[in-house]
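ASSEMBLY PREDICTION REQUEST
Request ID: AP-0331
Submitted by: J.K., bench scientist
Number of chains: two
Total residues: 595
Priority: normal
Notes: Please return the full assembly, not individual chains.
Input sequences:
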Amino acid sequence: MEEKIKKIINKIFISKVFLAVVFLIVFIFPQNLFSDNWLQVDVPEGSSVWVDTSHWETCAVWVNDGYYKDVANKRWVDSSYVVSQGYWRTGEYKVWIESRRFDSYTAYRYVDSSHYETRYRDVEVLIPVSFIIFEGTTSYGWSVYSFAAKYYGLQPVTYNGEKYVAEKYVIDYRPSRGGWIHAVKWVYIRKYVKVRQYYSQWVSSGYWQAYIAYRLVDDSHWETRTGRYWVDTSYRVQQGYWEEYKDREWVDTGHYENAKKWVSDGYFTEPIHGEVAVQKNPKYIFTKWHKDSQGNDCCMDLKVSWKLFNPETGMPDAINKIDRLYIYEEVNRYKEKGTDKVEIFDGRVSESSEGSVEASAKFDFAGGIESILHVFLYSTSGASVHVYFINPINGYRSINIKKEGTASDANEWLGGNDFGKVEF
Amino acid sequence: MQMNGWAAMILEKLNFKKLHGNRENQGSPGNVLIFTAILMPLFILLIGLVTDIGRALVYREELNKACMIAAEEACKKIDIDYAQSSGSSILDSSFEQVLFKYFEQNYKPKQNFILNYINYDIAGGTDNPKYLEVRCEGQVKCIFLKIVGIENIKIHSQANGRLRSLSRSNE
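STATUS: Completed
Returned structure:
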């Protein structure tokens, strides 16, 4: 019995713990539980955010263009012709006799006989010699007093009728014991010798030589003859007319056109942090062609709230403030019928780090689970936050089916989320 | 009077004399009357088949069209408020009114035709309307076939309608 009571108490305790855990999850991660990560956010990563301000610019571009135009032109067609005619006449007539002959004459030409001639001349050259002549002493005596010898340089000297170049040394010494010693030494090193030198000399010469030359003499002349000759009275008839013809003329219609040019631009700004909450009513959206119980078109009410804060201090963001929102839905139509873009909100809001925007939208076309609602929040610093979620648009029509019917259940509609919160 | 083909064959089977331009039998009014008396019901039967049954077929087509439109329009009457909040389809109370309204708009009462009943059935019930079935019965009063003893021809018609989602490509 006690065991049974314990089991019941245990069951109650476990169920309470379970409920407590569920409530905790609900309060801590409400968006995850209710929306199943329904709301997604797309913010640039990194320490600073690149704000792309690329845009289209209109500029003038030259467009080569033109066309061919048919034009009528005129041209002169010459139909002139020659009338050949004449007659024979008997009498004197002049005939041009063409005649040429060669005449000889004496001409002169210069014959150049300039040439080189070999000539010679006698020149004095120095040849090496080596002998010594002492004056006033001998070689022994010179060797005794050579310490007193002085050099007097090279000097031209004539010896035995020949001219030499010799070094002159002089001893002029007075010994202490008395007397005077004076001697001269000639060291012959070069001798002047006469040598015959040959060389070539250009001699200019020439003379005029007579020779027989020939020249062409034209002695053509008119000759008067007597007989029958042809008198040509032919003449040319000048005539023609203007003919019209079609021509193609290029008409240049080249012009400047305003073309759009993509200009890449942007800047870096501080990243943005905060949270965005989206509230949607109703949970399941239908196209405007379906009426609610009051007979009004079905529509969607949307409330987008934001709160920007400093992630480190938790205080409201002083730099980034939301000043513009752009909300639109890309409705992905069924059976690949394309995408329909529905603009829900596009405008400025008062600058604030915390605020909300409410908008309503009606949809023309139904779209499947690929339909996405985009929310762009733009801050004053240029940064932006992109929040998006899947938002199918339901639509239906009725059909007749086979008489056997169908076992498939009634339609279940797409959607089901009405609230989501995301932090970035 | 020359008779060939199927008429001659019938007469032969009935042991009548075959008339082949026999001068004795030519122009005998009695024979003609007999032939006419025998063939008349056949002609009436043929005309009856063409007119009465043809008329019945035409009325049946009209009834069928009215049933189809009524089923199609009535099944669209789901409770949209409920659908927006729960994502499920239940039929709105006004569907019956719509069903009869569209049936009446597409069915014009005619002479010699009586609409016996019009009925409907919701497969799966109003909370899970798989499809809506509209049935009706009528009877055509015969004009020619009455001569051969057929007073009325009963005609039945049935049409089913259901919703098709425009956001799901596989439905």
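REVIEWER COMMENTS: Confidence is low (pLDDT under 50) at residues 18-24 of chain B.
SIGN-OFF: pending second reviewer
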